[in-house]
């Protein structure tokens, strides 16, 4: 009889921060200079599916196939995750000799995103969250999502927030070993389920500075960065948590926009300066401001990660005003869900805004707040250990 | 015999700050939140020519003709300048009854720039400096340029720096009455005469937020602005003065670029955010970084005021590297001085940078450090009080 192939499969979500992570106080452990907070997005629209498998029949090193291609996992970040998970499994095996010695078998991991890499969405958060969750399930580890977030954090900082659904804080912590730098659930998705996100995918001529090196340049050279981490962000975190607890969209939106501005300001204050937003991104800001002005209240909030894409948060009840206005200008691009055409706005973007957006937005993604990682019976590794063809 | 027309004519320069003025602590008196420092640019290339005249034969209110058009001078800023100057003249007349009573006559002021307003260059600094200097000459006031800077400052903050040539600081001062908030000569143009400036005039689709209202929005809303004015700028001012005294271009350039970044970062941190630089401006930054990298040392420095134009400072000895490289990419736009074609660079901008600049730069202005206001016999008001046709 062939050796058994042990498998576990999970999906994990993307998260988009509303108080941004930018700056490490320890680059090896991925310990941040400030706390951050994000909204987990629905896996119906954006998710990574990962199957982790282990078998005595596997030979050689651990392997990862990502979106159909063999991926290099020799990097320190991935190795740190695998090492930590394996050590925990080994401890279980040491305590219970009945357990199969999975920790001694090579791992074969296969992973796949349901969204195009070309979209420029930070897929590493979902990727590392899925990797850690899938291996933890394979190893039957008893650790809580918050405990696992300590491991995922070492793969990619923001990945720690993707171990929860809903509204998630990453507490920066104070300890040198990072054991208090972990994700923490602020509120379940069900607490405030009507949060929606419209992502305007903006084509960039060229990939900008990677966030990992960019943030360390900011830490090293920005004269105003210290003020952000010591004064600005702590205030933003308090206001953001309060707004989520109270389901106060106006406050949520203002903090989201202010924090995005603050983050990109520290990038611009870096030497040499880092610019992630382009003229199309800025036009998206003007469009959000226009919609809010026309509505006479704050119905939409923009936020930008380390790239030109604009994420617009809004509430389902304001879909006509927000979604409808963007749809009117951008109906020709792909990504709109069925039925969006019937969501009518009473406002129309000014021609100069609409034309810049039309030229610069390549597609949209309609999504909203969603759940954390989900165990699934959809496997990317077959029972015989072969990669499932899709 | 008709009443005599008293006249005085002066030219005044534009200045481009290398440590920026952004924020008022007193909006009425134009008292700044931080000191600033600028290079006065040559009047051969950019200047305002202003003739101030007074006569008992004039009737009605004071008038100003600016670039051939009647200009409204009822605004508080212009009125403050006229009132201060007139009061000083009245004091002289009170002390010496032989003096003609010019303070009681209406003023007729005619002013003209030698550069297109469309260039989007801050002409208010040269304009108010020329206005104040011309009227002070007309009134034969004994005040020093530094004393007159107190008056020009009330017209337009940065105008106070245009009362001197060379390298000029505006000391923010501390007093509530603003009497210590004045311009101060750091070094004559002759101290470091080989400073050159290449201005890349970038066409903006739309005029951005005015600097006057923009800076007050920053003061009111930016979470990081305080750090700029209390910590960043004082350090920048010290380093900048030191670099000028030592004629240390590398230090001058680094501070210039860092301060421009810092200023635009506080704009981006404003709520709602203010963006003066566009994608063409950012490409100009990349071009300067490229030239410095190729040269293996810092030969060029970018700086941006409240608009998309890029001012590149460099030393005459590096003209081949700096001017030559930009010329190669931008030879088709207007504004190059005769002989520039023969300034050959060994480097060539990458195609993607060159093409963005070529599409986005509408003209260039070649200039350099220059002198302060100059008395001239070129009058824009004739001896009979009529406006000189040009």
UniProtKB/TrEMBL annotation, chains A, B:
Residues 12-182 form the Diphosphomevalonate decarboxylase-like N-terminal domain. Its EC number is 4.1.1.33. Residues 197-375 form the Mvd1 C-terminal domain. InterPro entries: GHMP_kinase_C_sf (IPR036554), Mev_decarb (IPR005935), Mev_diP_decarb (IPR029765), MVD-like_N (IPR053859), Mvd1_C (IPR041431), Ribosomal_Su5_D2-typ_SF (IPR020568), Ribsml_uS5_D2-typ_fold_subgr (IPR014721). Pathway: Isoprenoid biosynthesis; isopentenyl diphosphate biosynthesis via mevalonate pathway; isopentenyl diphosphate from (R)-mevalonate: step 3/3. It is an enzyme of class 4 (lyase). Keywords: ATP-binding, Kinase, Lipid biosynthesis, Lipid metabolism, Lyase, Nucleotide-binding, Steroid biosynthesis, Steroid metabolism, Sterol biosynthesis, Sterol metabolism, Transferase. One of its GO terms (molecular function) is kinase activity. GO terms for biological process: isopentenyl diphosphate biosynthetic process, mevalonate pathway; sterol biosynthetic process. GO terms for cellular component: cytosol. It catalyses: (R)-5-diphosphomevalonate + ATP = isopentenyl diphosphate + ADP + phosphate + CO2. Pfam families: MDD_C, MVD-like_N. NCBIfam families: mevDPdecarb (TIGR01240). Belongs to the diphosphomevalonate decarboxylase family. This is Diphosphomevalonate decarboxylase.
